[in-house]
Amino acid sequence: MVKPGGTTNGDVQTPTNAPDSPREQESPPPEGIQGDLEMELMGLANALYNLGTTVVNDLTKEKDKPGGGKQVGMRVNDVIGHLAHLDDMSHHVPTRIPMQVLEEIDNSRNPMNLTRERVERAATENQFMNGKIQAILSYKNYLDEALAQSFPELAPYLNDSTQQDPLMQHPPGNPPT
Length: 177
Description:
Layout: E1 6-9, E2 12-15, H1 33-60, H2 68-90, H3 99-106, H4 111-150
Antiparallel strand pairs: 1-2
């Protein structure tokens, strides 16, 4: 019988991928700093969950019962400890995340929208710049033709009028000499 959480072989259930995770639930974290960060983030999520359940449990208890506040304080200290450890680890991570992406997440918006907007803007600016380059090259070709007609002795020194973008003369990795 197949269950929603995976497949079963006898009494053993095989986990499937989590719906929001590209890797299996039971797979080990990556090695190195990324794995350490992932484990610390999971520890923080667990500490926050424990803090939330402790607060809810304390709210349902009698207020005049002694020792109720110590549990919440311990849970808060646990969360602070995880946050401090994450802050220490952040100095060793070479990946930088733009603040705008973090602001989008904080404002409950999808950061992919910001990425899409930036890609669209870059494509628009690229098309605009290509139009400018083509206009300048066209003007240059007209100028070369006019100079060659008016001053035939300069013709050998002018670029070929069929020549296009000067950047295309030298493919990447082969700079002009």
